[in-house]
Amino acid sequence: xxxxNLVSSIRLGVNENLYSENAYxxxxxxxxxxxxxxxxKLDFLILVIETLQINATDALFLRAKNxxxxxxxxxxxxxxxxxxxxxxxxxxTFVPITNNQVDALVKLISTMAESLxxxxxxxxxxKEPEGLNDERxxxxxxxxxSLIKDxxxxxxxxxxxxxxxxxNAFFRELLVILALASGPGGYSRLKASLYYQN
Amino acid sequence: xxNISRRYDQNSSSLELEGMPDVSSGDSNETIGIISSWTLKIxxxxxxxxxxxxxxxxxxxxxxxSRSYISGIKKSYTSTEKIVSLLPFxxxxxxxxxxxxxxxxxxxxxxxxxxxxxxTRCLDILRYDQQVNIKWNIDIDKPYPKRYITKxxxxxxxxxxxxxxxxxxxxxxxxxxxxxxxNVELLNTDKIESTSSEN
Lengths: 198, 199
What we know:
The complex is a heterodimer of chains A (198) and B (199).
Chain A: E1 2-5, H1 17-21, E2 32-34, H2 38-52, H3 56-66, H4 76-83, H5 99-124, H6 130-151, H7 157-164, H8 169-181, H9 186-193, E3 195-197
Antiparallel strand pairs in A: 2-3
Helix pairs in contact in A: 2-5, 2-6, 2-8, 5-8, 5-9, 8-9
Chain B: E1 2-10, E2 13-20, E3 34-42, E4 48-50, H1 52-70, E5 77-78, E6 84-89, E7 92-97, E8 107-111, H2 113-128, E9 144-145, H3 146-177, H4 184-198
Helix pairs in contact in B: 1-2
């Protein structure tokens, strides 16, 4: 018996082409509709990426170019317009988010989550030193709250509750979504969570 | 015969697969078409090993659980052959593995979020690996019906709102009973009654 050992070394960020190639991603969502909170969820996920990575906006635009997304995802104004579909923003458009926009944003968030996975994992791990993780959480939640105050409509009860919430339950939920959106199966998983079946 | 081994490492999880190409389906020399064995190492827990069916059962449970977890639903899942289960356990997740051999107690593994994600990523890489040509019996990630989401996600919030409303109603109701009733109207009615009797 001839024996060969092939160790697969699938590194972070390398397997981007999988997203376009996988069979699951190509399945149709013909009998589905976009969930009402999809725009809100996507905008908040981008906000978390901005919290975790300094200069994340530039990184997002660069990544959008690299994965072959259209111009509107690497242009500041156009990208901001898409993000304004979140009704909780200070300035929001009344135009609903489209299927193509959801698809592109999911692709973008998924690839960004892949590179940020080690950081996300650290925040969610219970095996990290408690004091150190508490400090990380304070830093993370403070920065995210300041971004929320900057961008979101504070007159909204939901936003004011979020800013004053000390349990950070929603922020943890967002990190869980980002963690599960990373990796080769993350794209289809995140996309499925943003739709309802009719 | 060509024996191939592949390894998938993700922080706390390491999955190793051994197999051979399925010549009848035209696999290349580097593609695994038939799995002979696999081992899964999760740091801090016993080594898991088994056959293809066991791996498929584990994959079904992890993939379904992760799919519902991303939608904010923490729900128990059991594999089709009922040998692997994953259920929420406080803020963690309890993985139950039943051995197919007799007189072997089921193995319990408590995973935290990060370990669950590592395991999910490990299995994701395996199922999307083009060097592994195996059809897994796994549900594809599809959207849930709206009713299912409403039932599972908003149930807790609704219950909380109901209890909150009931408590506030009881408190306000009790406080209202302590407010003295104005005698003005009673006096007025007395007057009216007395005048009517005089007439």
